[in-house]
Records
---
Amino acid sequence: MELKFCGAARQVTGSSHLLTLDNGYKILLDCGLYQGRDEEMEEFNDNWLFDPKEIDCLIVSHAHIDHTGRIPKLIKDGFSGDILCTHATRSLCSIMLMDSAKIQERDAEYNNKKGYSKKKKKPLYDSRDVKKCLKLMTGLSYNRWHYVCDGIKLQFRDAGHLLGSANVTLMIDEPDKERILIGFTGDIGRPMRPILNDPVTMPEVDYLICESTYGDKEHKAGPDESEEFLKIIEEVCVKNKGKLLIPAFSVGRTQEIVYMLDQLETAERLPHIPVYVDSPLAVNATLIYGSHPECYDNDINEYMLIDDNPFGFGTLSYVRDRGLSKRLNKSKEGCIIISASGMMNAGRIKHHLFNSMEDPKNGVMMVGYCAPHTPGGLLKRGHKELRLFGETRKVKMKIYEMHSFSAHADRVEIAGFLKNQKKLKKLFLVHGEYETQKEFKTYLGKLGHENVEIPTLGQKYELVR
């Protein structure tokens, strides 16, 4: 049995791992899009480290694009097997993959029109490919063993990271061979976060593929986050009368931010300023959130007894129309604009940044991970200039950062999640920057996890029973 790492190896995005059984059956775990600008990864999204036609089954941990964004291309290039995920993940993929296709089509058209690249840019896939992909997707429930094929069963447990997110356990029983359990954490969420259930630990497995995004950090404690958020809003929007840009994933992070603002408004503490969610995808995603209460925790269910709409309040507007989005770029009113993408490398937030960054009254609040070479990553690293849309502009707006919004577990939380894993033959760290992973490996070693590997892209391992 062989495990090959085909993405998110010493990188945070592009999740994809290939398991090949002794009988030749091939299971792909995730099929994500690389979302950075590392020159070494420039061709990643266009090429495969396997033949898509040979993959028998794809198992998806959750709907984020860095875990699903190449699925339509996989099908376009010959895959025709089953795609297994949770019910909520299938619902979210129906809008997120279509949005991804449209963004790629628009970006390719814009780049070709402006001549930013000598080589004509083409989208990886289009909306027709997305429709084919959804026909192959099957939604499965949590906490049950599901039949994959003879000798293989699958169990999803709630990962607490995103609506429908799951960790994956495969039970493999091949003739005349000892049973083996292989686990994939997907992205591990955080306990005691709003909206979603806490992460559910996995069964004990023999081999485990584990995320490590924040393996070198410990997040700020949750109770202070609404106070810190409120201070930033008052400084930028009330005192300076500027715009506060919040780059956020349309699915997950946006709903969490809106829910926090809704609670502040209910408590009559939110300043009376306009709040815009400038993302058609976020509008659709919020509707899907409402249709999957099986993923909610008890706190939001209790809150809904006093506020039946936790994602809407008086000064909040959801923006679909592109014309209104453009008008927000020129507006001088003090306001909050929540928009995608979270790394500021695509979508409407990139335009808002371009039009707001040279005004010191404005601010941007970073609430999640950004790949180093994306605009968000460059802002986090203190760059004083950014080149966007072929033009270099100075960064004069104030940069804020709130790690407490992260949907990824920190090193203490990951270690707690792994506490029940007593029989691991190998623990593979993925979905993290290499320096972070090295620190996390040392940290795990002190806790008794000795057989820890940090795979490189394309590296293969034999899994011994």
Note: The longest strand covers residues 152-158.
---
Amino acid sequence: MNRSLRRPYPRVRTGTAFSCGGNQGWFPDGNFRRCGCGVVACADALLYLQGVGELTREAYFAHVAALRRDFPLIPRRGIDGLRLALGMNRCLRRAGLPYRARWCTSGARFWDRLGAMLADDLPAIIAVGPNFPRLWGREGVTLYRLAEGGGYVPAERVRAHFLTVTGLDGGWLRVSTWGTERYLRRADYDGYMRRQSAALFTNLLLLQKI
């Protein structure tokens, strides 16, 4: 299954440099830097749905500030998928966008739903949830970057983190996170959902047209 968003993903300009989506690390609020990944993913998705392909960092800060009240963050815990869906629905209604969001809690149709979203030109926000039931666990999923000579090189490991899928190519997902483009192996994500986490936490924010 090969799917990809049809338009360029929003990029944020700082001087002459451009990011791939937003980055929670840009913000001065310490709790947001730690836990704001879900808000940033939703902010980017809304920009894409509104056809905004490029904006300055100042404009991006203003965009996120206008959304913050819809996504209350628990200190050091952030936000879960169910509350992320509630916040996204408030933003969609306010923007007059003809979509609704819901958090999927079954892993059985995960890949079909993700592929269908990309086929419909909808960015797919996914979570690499916390370890469960060992909430104190430190297992994660490896993200990769493209090497200059080709191939994938490990970049970082994530857990309890939201990111946005912009493409699905065979066994690899192309994602936006921390303002960069990264790659995630489908097999790694499946294995993490089954063995280290659970579908309630490691899943997809489903967008559907209404």
Note: The two ends are 25 Å apart (CA to CA).
